[in-house]
Amino acid sequence: MSSPLHPWNDNLWQRLVQLRVQLPHALLLHGRAGIGKLAVAERFVRLLLCEQPQAGGSVACGQCPSCHWMGQGSHPDFRKLQPAVLEEDDTADSIETPERKSATAGQQISVAQIRSLNEFVHLSTHRGGLRVALIHPAEALNNAAANALLKTLEEPPAHVVLILVSHHPSRLLPTILSRCHQLRFTLPDPTDALAWLNQHKVQHAAACLAQAGGAPLLAQQLAETDYQARRQAFLTGLLQVSVADSLRLAEQHAKHSMVELIHWLQQWQHDLLSLQLTGQLRYQVDFAAQLRGLAGRANLIRLLAFERRLQAARASAQHPLNPQMVLEDVLLEYANLFV
Length: 339
Ligand SMILES: [Zn+2]
Hints:
Low-confidence stretches: 89-103
CATH topology of the largest domain: Rossmann fold
Shape: elongated
Largest sheet: 5 strands, parallel
Strand content: 5-15%
Helix content: 40-55%
Number of helices: 16
Bound molecules: zinc ion
CATH superfamily of the largest domain: P-loop containing nucleotide triphosphate hydrolases
Mean pLDDT: 90
CATH class of the largest domain: Alpha Beta
Number of strands: 5
Order of helices and strands: HEHHEHHEHEHEHHHHHHHHH
Radius of gyration: 23 Å
């Protein structure tokens, strides 16, 4: 019994297995959200802790006491650190939906969690093997927590392996980065990603894969019916581009997640700009015909300014003071693209 390995991560998995010969104290697995980093990390933890690895040491046996404890989520030599908000919803892979990017306490890994980890790594192991900790996502470490972690990274006890998983390694302290052996996950080939989505019976696979920027596990999550219905309703509203339409759309969606709305608007703006400059679009492929029509009418200078406006809105989208006012403002500027 082992965590599933997504086919596009097979090469990376082989590299990890080879690292066992001379195992670094700290590993950083990084790459886009929604491509299976966490699944690989968890599979590797199982392998490291397994007492009788199979297939030349490349697969956890699934039978030994260690594998049994991992299956139950109760291995005494393993700790998983993640923000409290992810504890409640531990089913998904390393998906980072826009809502999960916030700076509120529940979405951070706290210094208390790292202090408890520092105690854990200095204990002797229960099974005489390794002690392993998984930190996911590492960018959720707040400043104090990151500094506390550095102490362990600087003087790692023997028999301890720290595995950090990150969607945004640029947000990590350089001192943390420099102490980790880094492995970068890349996006799968679109054909392979699509084949996998079809095999898993994901509806509208190509459109969802585009919306997910090519990340298959994120695409699988976005295929959820409610999400697509919300998205369709909002994007359909963007097809009408008068002041009155903008005000009505803002009123209709004022109670909606601003993070989600701004995210869709950013993809929409990107597609409009891209269509004007290159004739290609990337994200909202199921609206290709409508976007082409709009792109032909949009003012390029204002379209570029709108990108900056959306970036600013995105920065405060988690806690807007007055969501309807912000949304009205943004949508009026949107209508103005086509005047
Ligand atoms: Zn085992």
